[in-house]
Amino acid sequence: MTQPRALMTAQEMIELMEKVFPQALAFGFTIDEVEARRVVISLPTQQEHLRPGGTVSGPTMMTLADTAMWLAVLAAIGPVALAVTTNLNINFLRRPSPGPINAEARIFKLGTRLAVGDVSLRSEGQEDLIAHATLTYSIPPPEKRGLPVA
38: which strand partners? Predict the structure, then answer.
């Protein structure tokens, strides 16, 4: 059975963000892999991503998880900038070391109005999860999928 192909490439996602969501690019992540319902991104954490105690902050990991899932949704449905998070639940499993974090987003259910999936976060080079998130995204109806006007 042939796997469906992603409807956007990493470069197309970056170009879309430059137009409609440049704040996301300022976060500093890279897009490492793109498949039809799976995206891997990484963040080379910096001082501003750390909390007291020298560990990566929870808000940083939540942002990384949310960004990874948004990109997975775009890979699955195309350039629908107005797909938005309706639920994000995260479990912090172990203290990450300062350094790069990888986020693998997978979509489990893709409907016409909702996408449901999870994101696994790992410190680069480590097998154990540092956090696991489940997310639901709302997909706008076809007549409202145009790019937002500035």
Answer: 35, 106
Closest C-alpha among 104, 75, 105, 68 to residue 6: 75
Whether residue 75 has pLDDT greater than 80: yes
CA distances from 9 to 27, 31, 75, 92 (A): 19, 10, 7, 30
CA angle 62, 67, 70 (to 5 degrees): 125
| Secondary structure (3-state) at 54 | coil
CA 95 to chain centre: 20
In angstroms, the CA 81 to CA 70 distance is 9
Distance, in Å, from the CA atom of 75 to the CA atom of 98, rounded to the nearest integer, reads 29
Q: What is the mean pLDDT of residues 36-57?
A: 86
Secondary structure percentages of the chain, helix, strand, coil, to 5: 30, 35, 35
- Domain membership of residue 137 (yes or no) is yes
Does residue 150 carry a pLDDT above 60?
no
Domain limits for position 58: 10-144
Q: For position 46, which CATH number holds? A: 3.10.129.10
User: 6: which strand partners?
Assistant: none
